[in-house]
Amino acid sequence: MEEKTVRTRYAPSPTGFMHVGNLRTALYEYLVAKSQNGKFILRIEDTDRERLVEGAVNVIYDTLELAGLKHDEGPDVGGNFGPYVQSERKDMYLPYAQQLINEGKAYRCFCTKERLEKLQNDNIGGGYDRHCRDLPQEEIDRLLEKGTPYVIRQKMPIEGSTTFKDAVFGEITVDNSELQDQILIKTDGYPTYNFANVIDDHTMGITHVVRGCEYLSSTPKYNLLYEAFGWEVPTYIHLPLIMGKDEDGNVSKLSKRHGATGFYDLINDGYLPQAIINYIALLGWCPKDNREIFTVAELEKEFDVSGISKSPSVFDYDKLSWFNGEYIKAMSEDEFTEAAMPYYKKVFGDKAMPYKKFAAILQKRTTQLTQIPEMLDFFAQLPEYGKELFVNKKSKTNLENSPVILKEAYERLKSMPKWTDTAIHDCLINMAAEKELKNGTVMWPVRIAAAGKTVTPGGAVEILDILGRDESLKRIEKGLEILAE
């Protein structure tokens, strides 16, 4: 018997927001397929008409592209199993529901909204009381003739239990008495999410279904549908929850109060798409060795379902920042400049700046691109500062020696014929040697005068080099004025 091609699908609803949980599901679906030479399919589930957001389908395309997850079939690339948009498949579902009615596995439910609401308020057994499950045929015909609106419900087994095997959580058994006669087709003729899902997965040849473990309890409902049609049940892979750290140290389901939870929100927070994907891959999956940095292509080779954990993973923003820092360090100068450019523009507008020199001082110090404006703002404008900044224990500088050192440095720098980083470096280091001072004792006052702040990317030499002769000397004069006050 020839082996079936592994086919997974990512089926988001176009609501305009990609949560990291959805993104991880997409990534694992992609990796399950690619690690076994399979196909990764994109299907747009837009049957929940109330939640649709204009332009949201493009957000899905853009996210997958940025994340490096290329789908083999989908609305934009086609394939043999289309259409790949659920609303374009809407005429497919009713005949399948009709088939189940004919076989006695489903029924029409004519209960009014009011009756169902009253039921819910009285809470009889926590759900629908199967009032229409055994209506006599003449009653059904009478209601149909009158044009009474109805939904189609599945006849669930009332006794026994349903067991299924999950690739991560093992065998799961649910008592059938807990399962309600679920609605398959709504009064508007549209299928419910669960019903459309099963029909679409089967007709698209999906072999592996990857989703969050919050769907574990509803899986028997899906399986009873597969069995009702006599179809092969797919392999289920349920993923652990993603949690966030609360302020009190406890964890709860990841939400906006923990920080950015959407893919684009994280990008706007200065994280690189490839760093986000790398980090998310390890949220709930462990490679065979302790390696941490993976490209998508490397993940395709390494990924194995057996490495998925059952226990929830905690989304750690510090760890994500570490990953991001590693990716930033590994960039070429040009790549870094391109990524940093929107942040440079926030500080300098369209003014030409020595971007190569910025890369040299920023790349190894940046863990989020959003840090760049704050790190560079003093180049655009010297901040207001007080003379207490010149005092530094470690560098052995105080308000007595700082004016003397700064004045001497100013005279030496001013008389330099060429303003280059090497010349500035040699000038200040030689001064320290001649005056028998620590290098830091000379560098600290110079850097404070040049930057007006204690924490800067790069030291005195790099800052003076970037500022240029005129601006540097002007700022040191200002520093001397502040010290003389």
Provide a concise account of the structure shown.
The protein has 19 helices and 12 strands.
Topology:
Layout: E1 7-10, H1 20-34, E2 39-42, H2 56-67, H3 93-102, E3 106-109, H4 113-122, H5 137-146, E4 151-154, E5 161-166, E6 170-175, E7 183-185, H6 193-203, E8 208-212, H7 219-229, E9 235-239, E10 242-245, E11 251-253, H8 263-268, H9 273-281, H10 296-302, E12 313-315, H11 317-329, H12 333-348, H13 355-362, H14 372-380, H15 401-414, H16 421-434, H17 439-451, H18 460-467, H19 469-484
Helix pairs in contact: 6-7, 9-11, 12-13, 12-14, 15-16, 15-17, 15-19, 16-17, 16-18, 17-18, 17-19, 18-19
Counting DSSP E segments of at least 2 residues, the number of strands comes to 12
Q: Report the principal-axis shape.
A: elongated
Secondary-structure-derived class: mainly alpha
Q: What is the first-to-last residue Cα distance? A: 90 Å
